[in-house]
Amino acid sequence: MEVKTSLLDNMIGVGDMVLIEPLSEDTFIENLRKRFDHNEIYTYIGSVVISMNPYKSLPIYTAEKVEEYRNRNFYELSPHIYALADEAYRSLRDQDKDQCILITGESGAGKTEASKFVMSYVAAVCGKGQEVNKVKEQLLQSNPVLEAFGNAKTVRNDNSSRFGKYMDIEFDFKGDPLGGVISNYLLEKSRVVKQPRGERNFHIFYQLLSGASDDTLQKLKLDRDFSKYNYLSLDSATVNGLDDAASFRTVRNAMQIVGFMEDEVQSVLELVAAVLKLGNLEFKPESRCNGFDESRIKDKNDLKEMCELLGIEQSVLERAFSYRTVEAKMEKVSTTLNVAQAYYARDALAKNLYSRLFSWLVNRINESIKAQTKSRKKVMGVLDIYGFEIFEDNSFEQFIINYCNEKLQQIFIELTLREEQEEYIREGIEWTNIEYFNNAIICDLIENNKNGILAMLDEECLRPGTVTDETFLDKLNTVCAEHQHFESRQSKNSKFLTDHSLPHNCFRIQHYAGKVLYRVEGFVDKNNDLLYRDLSQAMYKANQSLIKILFPEGNPAKVNLKRPPTAGFQFRASVGTLMKNLLTKNPNYIRCIKPNDKKAAHIFTDSLVCHQVRYLGLMENVRVRRAGYAFRQAYEPCLERYKMLCKQTWPHWKGPAREGVEVLLKNLQVPAEEFAYGRSKIFIRNPRTLFFLEEKRRQCLEDLATLIQKIYRGWKSRTHFLLLKKSQVVVAAWYRRFAQQKKYQNIRSSALVVQSFIRGWKARKLLRELKHKKRCEEAVTTISAYWHGTQARWELRRLKEEARNKHAVSVIWAAWLGTKVRRDYRKFFRANAGKKIYDFTIQRIMQKYFIGLKKTMPSMSPVDKSWPARPYGFLDGTHQELRRVFHLWRCKKYRGQFTEEKKATYEEKLAASELFKDKKALYPSSVGQPFKGDYVEITKNPKYQKLNSLVEDKVLLADVVSKINRANGKGAPRIFLLTKKSLVLADQKTGQVKASVPLLDLSSVSVSTQSDGFFALKLKEGSTSAAKGDFLLSSDRLIEIITKLHRIGATSADRNQINIDISDEFLVQFKQDKVCVKFIQGTPKNGNGVACKRKNNRLLEVSVPSP
Ligand SMILES: Nc1ncnc2c1ncn2[C@@H]1O[C@H](COP(=O)(O)OP(=O)(O)O)[C@@H](O)[C@H]1O
Ligand SMILES: [Mg+2]
């Protein structure tokens, strides 16, 4: 058996008291002290957790700790309350066993804290989710609300629960919380009106006054000052370490989370305020005429405010405090209340108001946290009931509280000590009995129906006649005198007659946890728990709905004359139900121990702890535990749970369960001393054996889960595979069909192609044959046609020949006849008809000729050379003459339309023609040029204005010419002006006259025959102008210049004719020298222009491109 970690590791003292050696009270307490000193506040006795109150906060409740203890075996880690909580939660979740966690211990031992740790642990480890978290939050937040209203500072505990609380937390099958139910047990309501010295009223009063806003306080008509309120004890109004203001905010917030409506909270606070106001009511006596004292309220202000708060008519309440109405058998008797009775009524109302409000709060919380589902729930009960209390002055409340603790101890004894031992005996397990104190006898003393103290009290309360606390004590003294645990001074038992520690008005009970002295004063009253009907009816008349709910008996429609059950009776009944409830659940114990009475950390008072260890029966617990077995279980469920650990028992065991378990344990080789076989149960001594079994089972379950998974997966895969296979077959079939179809279609189409080809081929062959046959037939036909044709033509020819021959004969004959006839006729005709016919014919021909000529006349242009063709040869002469006449006429017409100017131009052109036609090659190019005369616009051009003014006569010609340089033959541009009398050469750019030669001095002009523009102006020898020599010029308009020059000479008065000398070689007089200008044809080197070159002194050669 191997456990990975253990509570034995790093242990301080021993973690489990079962292991302590030797076992004695001293070693037990020493172990507790040692662990306490090391802040190890938890120690086990088997599965019971002992918790020491550390009175300081320890870092052992963190989230990490929660994780550490989560899902771990109880003994795996060092002792902790979380281990117990985890064990309980897991048993609940996994084994479906309802659990209860019983937290016991004295007041201030840490029960309430423990219950909160358990709840917070369970909340942390159980399921999560929005809904679940809300439930958890509501369950947890119910605590601060109940603590504020139900807890108070006592001398033992600053936060002592003054009510018993049992909370059932409900879970679903998964272990998620569904909701809860809270039961409260007997609130210590006397605290509302009076608190022992050093103690406080319930927290809520102080919290409200410190924490509420000014606004709220004003609304509640309260004052922040505690001293203003009679019900608040002042000596310990503030408690160290308690921040009432902050707590108030926490409470408000918690109420909101739990689901209180805003108006509900307001009503609750109004009631709390009303209680405080009620405490301030004071009464004064007022004598009445009938001699009775009557009470009056002293200061009605508080009453007024309270009535305003609760919405009660002031007079109604005032009357309720003054009178008491007793109803009996349809009779109503009203009596006045004296001052003491008025105070009693006031306090009774305050107590009732508060305790009913508290019960309402619990119910309201229950309503909010109620599980929403009706399905079966698993339940974990947490019991945090007020602890055993021994005060200086113990009253009815302590009696009740201690009774409750007796009952819990009883349960503990029942389940852990007696039940366990009895079970061993019942099961036939060898067992040596262990002595322990059974407190059943004390329980009996208190709760026995016949002569129990509570029964006596009830009897006394219900008894007619005067009933006082003293009569009650007397009764006890007679009835319980014999009881070992009852002690009273006046009991028959003389033992206490001299016991001065036992006052006369007291009785003492030896509780399991010690002797407690109870003062009987108030027992009867508190048990009666009387509230005058006038008050409850007054309350019922309130406007505030909550008050109406709290005092249902005040409803006049439901008058109930029956006495309500007494407080003791109610409590006994509810404790009874609680015990029954707890017995149905699997108990988990937390036994709280208080280390000192000073609420101080680090102090360990041996005597105090020893006392608690004793009365809690912890030593006996250890002894039973050590002697006994940690675990037992009936054979059937045991076998059912572990049968998978052995082949013989798995999956089914045929024989009896016990044998099955025996086989199982043998098979698992569990040592024999570890277990014992009872009659119906197997007992396992050590928890480790159980854990071993559990661990084995867990592994086995894992294997089984794997097996199931394997089989399931196999099955799933198989079915999947089969499905795939089936699908594959379908797909394959479809595919094959498709493929075959496609193949078939391919083959078919190929066959069709082949077929069509063959058919085509065959058809073509047939066609060829047929064509051949047809051609043959045609050929035959043609041949035969030809043959027939030939034959026919032969025949035709022959016939034609025959016919021609016949015709020729007839023609020859006819010709012969004709010739013969014509010969005869000619002789006759020639004699007279010939001349007439001839004339007529000629006439007709001429007519036709002229008409035809008229139609085909050429155009009127003198240059048009066309002329219609001659139709008859004999008209040749006429035709030419007509042409000439027509041309002359046409020319005359043409000339007739000329102006004088044009005429002169044409005359010039004519003169040019006469001069140069066929003499100079340049001439043809000039024919098309009009002789414009002025080419430089001498009159208009401003450049030549001066030049123009110098020339006297009309300018006949003005042009730019090249003056050939005598030295090199190169030309220079000059303006050439010609007037009737002279010619002028001027500079082209400036217009300055270079030379002016009178025409009279000009003897001749020489030009070449070629197409060049060179001309030499030769001057008369001896004339004035001749001094400079002749001019050799060149111009494109040579023809025009020379023609004009020549015409001036011809028309001038003195008839000075200028000779025109046309030759390719001429002499020019340059100053003294005569130079020969020679024109040659040839291709000049530079382009096709004319080039002039001075060859030598005597020769100037001009090469002219050949035309
Ligand atoms: N585990 C703990 N850790 C720290 N302080 C504790 C612990 N248990 C109890 N106390 C202190 O002891 C005080 C009394 O505890 P409480 O649970 O109210 O006692 P009980 O309910 O038994 O009367 C608490 O107010 C707290 O200060
Ligand atoms: Mg408590």
* Average pLDDT reading: 86
Strand content: 15-25%
Structural class: alpha+beta
Bound molecules: adenosine-5'-diphosphate, magnesium ion
**Counting H and I runs of at least 4 residues, what is the number of helices?**
32
Radius of gyration: 79 Å
Terminal-residue CA separation? 144 Å
Major beta sheet, strand line-up: 23-22-21-20-26-25-24-27
Q: What general form does the structure show?
A: elongated
**Poorly predicted sequence stretches spanning 5 or more consecutive residues:** 1-5
Helix content: 40-55%
Q: What is the number of beta strands?
A: 31
Largest sheet: 8 strands, mixed
Brief digest:
The chain is an alpha+beta fold. The chain contains 32 helices and 31 strands. A hairpin with a 6-residue loop joins strand 20 and strand 21.
Account of the protein in words:
- With 1107 residues, the chain is of the alpha+beta class.
- The chain contains 32 helices and 31 strands.
- It has an 8-stranded mixed beta sheet with strand order 23-22-21-20-26-25-24-27, with helices on one face. Strands 1-2-16-3-12-6-7 form a 7-stranded mixed beta sheet, sandwiched between helices. Strands 28-29-31-30 form a 4-stranded mixed beta sheet, with no helix packed on it.
- Helix 10 (262-279) packs antiparallel against helix 13 (339-369).
- It is elongated and about 220 Å long.
- The two termini are 144 Å apart.
- The site of magnesium ion has 5 residues, from helix 4 and strand 5.
